[in-house]
Design goal:
Layout: H1 2-31, E1 33-38, E2 41-57, E3 60-63, E4 71-74, E5 81-82, E6 87-91, H2 93-168, H3 175-214, H4 222-245, E7 249-251, E8 256-261, E9 275-279, E10 284-291, E11 303-308, E12 313-325, E13 332-339, E14 349-366, E15 371-373, E16 376-387, E17 390-400, E18 402-405, E19 409-412, E20 423-427, E21 436-439
Parallel strand pairs: 1-21
Antiparallel strand pairs: 1-20, 2-10, 2-14, 3-9, 4-6, 5-8, 6-7, 8-9, 10-13, 11-12, 11-14, 12-13, 14-19, 15-16, 16-17, 17-21, 18-19
Helix pairs in contact: 2-3, 2-4
Length: about 450
């Protein structure tokens, strides 16, 4: 009986242990991280840069008109394509005719004013000529009168001297009579000197009057100014007549796209352009902004693909034309790509794709499998361990060195991992060194 009880107890114990083992295995399965693995492989790392930008004109032409014209009609809208000769705007012809008539009246008025000024200036010239002739006559007359007065004074002086000398030669000389004659000589001499001074003063006054008559007056530039004004009005009139000959139509000079319209119907034209046309024959350009960290992959001449998703249009075999720092944000780069004519519409959006392929690497893994801590890169690989519950899979940390990486893959130094090792790519929960794991069934 005792033997049977012992066998029964042993059997119960073994069953209990089996149940506990099964429960332990089930519990371990529920708490163990479920992982997906990948083996390192050989591949080429491709760096892909994408950015969304716009198609812009390469060359723009301004369309203008004579200032002061009233816009009667605008026949295009922004974004519309036009061919040479297509009507862009219509000028109000009634107002144009009024302006032409007004300019003609202004020219007629200036002509009359110039004729009046010329006549007035002719009279003034005659007056000036008469004044000069009279001044010349006065100069001659002053010289002649002075000469006559000097000659008379000289004669009187000579006669007084002769009388004094004749008296002194007589036998009897009276002092009183000699004094009288000597006084007469002095008086005559002074009269002569006064006559000389009067002659010089008269001639000087006459000469000054002649100089004043000969002096040029303030130049009168009124006629020249009127001529300048008339030339300006004639130029305006020629431009107005040119508009009139075209019927007031302003047409497209080139094949292009209307990029900006700066006037409205009823407004008067100014010195600024009416509208702008993008020259389609000159082509266009794509411009986008990219983070400066991508600069090494955006080299001039690098192949580019542009895709317009809305129109389902893709343009390949383009090249980067220019890369420069953005003027507003130094952390961004402006990437420009020239486009041939009629490839994409100006104003459209497009996505740029640039791919730079590196060399071939033997040890590459998905970027999700790569971890970093304290400046060190590492991965987790699967390893087998023996436990009381049997063989168990655990995670083991392996430090690695990254040679190159992109958004999808990382290339590691050769020797970090072997192609036979299973690298954990994804885990259902956080794992560490030695964490138990189990493989996800495919």
């Amino acid at each position: 009986m005792k033997g049977k009880k012992m066998l029964r107890s042993l059997a119960i114990f073994l069953v209990f242990m089996l149940v506990c083992t099964m429960l332990s295995r089930a519990s371990s399965t529920l708490t163990t991280a479920l992982v997906q693995t990948v083996s390192p492989g050989k591949m080429v790392i491709v760096h892909k840069v994408t950015a969304v930008g716009k198609i812009q004109e390469e060359r723009e032409l301004a369309v203008s008109a004579q200032a002061g014209q009233k816009i009667a009609q605008i026949s295009v809208r922004e974004g519309e394509r036009v061919a040479p000769g297509d009507l862009l705007l219509q000028i109000d012809m009634d107002m144009l005719r009024e302006q032409i008539a007004s300019r003609r009246q202004e020219l007629k008025k200036i002509g009359l004013e110039r004729a009046g000024l010329a006549a007035s200036m002719g009279i003034e010239d005659q007056k000036k000529g008469l004044a000069i002739r009279r001044a010349q006559e006065d100069c001659a007359q002053a010289a002649a009168q002075g000469d006559r007065a000097v000659a008379r004074a000289a004669e009187e002086w000579d006669r007084a001297v002769a009388e004094l000398n004749g008296y002194r030669q007589t036998a009897e000389i009276l002092d009183e009579q000699e004094d009288v004659l000597a006084g007469a000589v002095d008086t005559a001499q002074k009269a002569y000197e006064d006559a000389l001074a009067a002659r010089e003063e008269g001639i000087r006054s006459a000469d000054r009057a002649l100089e004043d008559a000969l002096l040029e007056g303030t130049p009168d530039s009124t006629i020249q100014l009127k001529e300048i004004e008339a030339k300006s009005i004639r130029r305006q009139l020629d431009k107005l007549k040119k508009i009139q000959r075209t019927g007031g139509e302003i047409c497209a000079p080139i094949k292009g796209t209307v990029t900006r319209i700066q006037v409205s119907v009823g407004e008067l034209t100014a010195e600024t352009p009416l509208l702008f046309l993008a020259d389609l024959d000159a082509g266009c350009r794509f411009t986008a902004q990219v983070e400066k960290s991508q600069e090494e992959y955006l080299v001039q001449g690098t192949p580019v693909t542009l895709t317009n998703g809305q129109k389902k249009q893709t343009v390949r075999d383009l090249k980067i034309d220019l890369v420069r720092v953005n003027g507003e944000d130094p952390a961004l780069l402006d990437v420009c790509v020239r486009l041939p004519a009629d490839v994409l519409e100006i104003g459209d959006s497009a996505e740029m794709t640039v791919e730079q392929r590196s060399g071939t690497y033997d040890t590459c893994i998905p970027i999700q499998a790569l971890h970093q801590a304290n400046g060190m890169y590492f991965v987790y690989v699967i390893q087998k361990e023996e436990t009381i519950l049997g063989e168990q899979l655990t995670a083991r940390r392996v430090d690695v060195t990254v040679q190159e990486q992109n958004e999808i893959y990382a290339a590691l130094d050769d020797g970090c991992l072997s192609n036979s090792q299973k690298v954990i790519r994804d885990a259902s929960k956080t794992i560490d060194e030695g964490s138990p794991v189990r493989l996800e069934e495919p």
